[in-house]
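Re: that backbone. Tokens:
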């Protein structure tokens, strides 16, 4: 079984600002809400949205891209 994510092919895009960089996870986190699958992004089991909440203990960390 094959699963296609996004558009066919590879289309790299420049991410020139922090604002645009932050739009990417926000878009992914809000997709299940827009589809009516959950009431809030952090309720989606397969999302990292809960780790972006104030005071959250992160299970998976990532390096700060602004370094």
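Recovered sequence:
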């Amino acid at each position: 079984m094959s699963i296609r994510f996004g558009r066919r092919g590879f289309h790299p895009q420049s991410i020139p600002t922090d604002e645009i960089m932050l739009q990417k996870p926000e878009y992914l986190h809000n997709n299940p809400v827009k589809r009516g699958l959950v009431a809030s992004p952090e309720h989606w089991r397969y999302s990292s949205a809960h780790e972006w909440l104030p005071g959250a203990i992160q299970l998976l960390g990532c390096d700060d891209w602004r370094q």
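The chain has one helix and no strands. The mean pLDDT is 80.
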